[in-house]
Amino acid sequence: MALTVKKFGGSSVASTEKILNVAKRVLSEKQPGDRIVMVISAMGDTTDDLIALAGGITKNPYQYAREMDMLLTTGEQVSIALLSMAFQELGQPAVSITGAMAGMQTNSAHTKGRITEITPDRVKRELADGKIVVVAGFQGIDPNGDPVTLGRGGSDTSAVALAGALKADSCEIFTDVEGVYSADPRIVPDARKMKEITYHEMLEMARLGAGVMQPRSVEMGEYFKIPIHVRSTFTNKTGTIIREDYTMEDKDFVIRGVAHDAKVAKIAVLGIPNTPGIAHEIFSALADANIDVDMIVQSIRNIEKNVTDMVFTVASDDLGQAKQVVDKVADKLNAIAVLIEEDVAKVSIVGAGMLGSPGIAARMFGALSTAAINIDIISTSEISISCLVKSAQLKEAVNAIHEEFFPKQA
């Protein structure tokens, strides 16, 4: 008698046929007494289609963030209603409920919401009545009663958070790949599937671009100590377990994986005063606009004139808003110029094993050098090293680094 939360992504429910297959699979694995909560994304490319609709009204739809959330939350309502019908058609009592109905409470940061509290009373009542509860992922409700979405991949966060609030036995994330790999298998054909990975490493992989999990969902898993099983919708194979520590031979790898992010842009603020408080002036303004910043580099441009350059990266989706914020601050600081580069990408290595293992950075840089790939910016954390390279060389960079740390097996 297990309580399980199962999340299915958009590709898993992209058609009515696939929705029926999901329902049949869940019922085929269900044991007597099992209680099941489903967290479902919008069908296929529905979210992109809705964004495109908004793009027919305005060139910058996200300036109307509240209305975008009102629009985007409709996608999941279609898929949960259809899946609930599918279960009932197969003889299984089920009910579809929105994120708000499931007690998913968020802040008011529209399109980038964070869960503040979960009160899943409705979910518990429906489970007690013997129903499979089908919950809309990616969404919640703010203190004003307005819908708020949780950002790309937010259904993962919905699922793990709900599993924690319900004290579920496990949380399964079903996707179109068989687990977490040492690199994106679409980029690196020889990428290796991991049996296990720690929360800390998976969080870093996700933050640096590994799209299989949203970073906040991993944070939720670690907070609630819920093991997360990432597995394929289309096979019954065991996937990858995200947990607190390893129990298997995967511990032998110093580097766990190579992540990449093609959706980044570089902003350079040139010729600003090299005085205390300047960095705070720039980055607090970006923080107030809910814009995440990465790979920050400050360099002395002119010692005699005491001016400096500030260089950093943001997500491509945030570039338009970030430039507006930075332009205002740059004018205030009498900066020489604000330069934008969009033809860049980030490639990273992640692994707790690099602590106390000298030479890891040199091997990464050497692999890029051998492939004649220039490094623009370097940033590091305790368990990761990231390099900014030209977008056109991203695939080559990922493969070169992966081959260095995961050489092809004979």
Describe the protein in words:
The chain is 33% helix and 27% strand. The chain has an eight-stranded mixed sheet, with helices on both faces. It has a four-stranded antiparallel sheet with strand order 13-18-20-19, with helices on both faces. The chain has helices at residues 16-29, 46-55, 65-89, 121-128, 154-165, 199-207, 215-224, 278-288, 319-333, 360-370, 394-405, and strands at residues 3-8, 35-40, 94-97, 104-106, 115-118, 132-136, 139-141, 147-149, 170-175, 196-198, 228-232, 240-243, 257-261, 264-273, 294-302, 307-315, 337-341, 344-350, 377-381, 384-390. It is built from eleven helices and 20 strands. The mean pLDDT is 93. The chain is an alpha/beta fold and 410 residues long.
The overall strand count is 20
Shape: globular
For the largest beta-sheet, the strand count, sense and barrel status come to: 8 strands, mixed
- Into which percentage range does the β-strand content fall? 25-35%
Unreliable stretches (pLDDT < 50, length at least 5) are none
Main sheet strand line-up: 3-6-2-1-9-11-12-10
Distance between the termini: 45 Å
* Average pLDDT level: 93
Q: Tell me roughly what share of residues is in helical segments.
A: 25-40%
Rg estimate, integer Å:
23 Å
By helix and strand content, what is the structural category? alpha/beta
Care to give the gist of this entry?
The chain has eleven helices and 20 strands.
Chart the SSEs and their pairings.
Blueprint: E1 3-8, H1 16-29, E2 35-40, H2 46-55, H3 65-89, E3 94-97, E4 104-106, E5 115-118, H4 121-128, E6 132-136, E7 139-141, E8 147-149, H5 154-165, E9 170-175, E10 196-198, H6 199-207, H7 215-224, E11 228-232, E12 240-243, E13 257-261, E14 264-273, H8 278-288, E15 294-302, E16 307-315, H9 319-333, E17 337-341, E18 344-350, H10 360-370, E19 377-381, E20 384-390, H11 394-405
Parallel strand pairs: 1-2, 1-9, 2-6, 3-6, 9-11, 10-12
Antiparallel strand pairs: 4-5, 7-8, 11-12, 13-18, 14-16, 14-17, 15-16, 18-20, 19-20
